[in-house]
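Re: weekly structure request thread

Next one in the queue (244 aa):
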Amino acid sequence: MNTTQKTALIIGGSRGIGRATALRLARDGYAIIATCRQESAASAELADGVAACGVPFTLLTFDVGDRDEARRQLEGAFGEGGAPDVAVFNAGQADDNLFAFMTPAQWSDVLRTNLDGFYNTIQPLVFGMLARKSGRIIAISSASGQTGQAGQVNYSAAKAGLIGAVKALAREVGRKGVLVNAIAPGLIETDMTKELPKERILPLIPLARAGVANEVAGVVSFLCGPDSTYIHGQVIAVNGGLVM
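Done, posted below.
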């Protein structure tokens, strides 16, 4: 990799918001390192899309819930104590059920991916950013983490936990030039939301439509750019007015 070129790590980058974010940051000139659980047609399409932007692309395949493997892969990509210029935590999993019927696996698996995954993939990078005295960390939370949703106690808890983690981490690292923020999307058209009862959700959205992944990616791009250098520890909602 060109040592003068900035790099962006997209955790959960092969589909949906992660894919849109990787392509947007590639167009912004970042070398892209994306992660996913395993190679697929989606990851191949992402590689082609990033290549078309004329920047380097690297794919890392691991489960964000596997702490040791996550650290091993990240150290392989950045070196021990190294870090990208931008780290976007976008890994997400939903397994909805009413809390009274929620199984231990539904609870544990969702928190393992959505919240433990943040620690497993971001914590190994923080020392490198602190040593360099620069970096951007962006966590993709959810409107469900801001207000809670029936049938999503596990998902809402994990996404609310991300917001708390971002605010606390921002207090720890801001003096060293590392900016930490969260984005809370609402109803965004992705594979994860295609089974949701949109006929019940759309009337609750003042803009009367679902969002698209590029609208979230645009906010990520802004938070990575030169016009956001005084935005820190914040949660930016991208939800069409669903949560105000």
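The mean pLDDT is 96. The two ends are 42 Å apart (CA to CA).
Next request, please.
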